[in-house]
């Protein structure tokens, strides 16, 4: 699924609503120092509409992405994988490589 960006009309309306301030921390936005962010991430079904658009300073956008969006998306992927029985490959313990061949690790008896 490709990312859907906001249209110019939506960006204009969101910028007018924000009135030159970050909508998270209310800091004054400098020219070019802000991002248009999906409230509900696009990957989770957030539509590119005005109700789902917020104007954030770069710092707030990075924090929101790292602390909220990425974990929510990862959890959604894990849950959907679990629902269709996709699991991580099992790792065999006690095996190691010896001259390019897998051999069972010998137990030590002293």
From TrEMBL:
Record domain HNH nuclease: where: 9-62
SMART domains noted in UniProt: HNHc
Nuclease as UniProt keyword: yes
Top-rank taxon, per record: Bacteria
Gene3D superfamilies documented for this protein: 1.10.30.50
Molecular functions per Gene Ontology: endonuclease activity
CDD domains: HNHc (cd00085)
Keywords, sorted A to Z: Endonuclease, Hydrolase, Nuclease
Name the UniProt record assigns to this protein: HNH endonuclease
Organism: Flaviflagellibacter deserti
Lineage: Bacteria, Pseudomonadati, Pseudomonadota, Alphaproteobacteria, Hyphomicrobiales
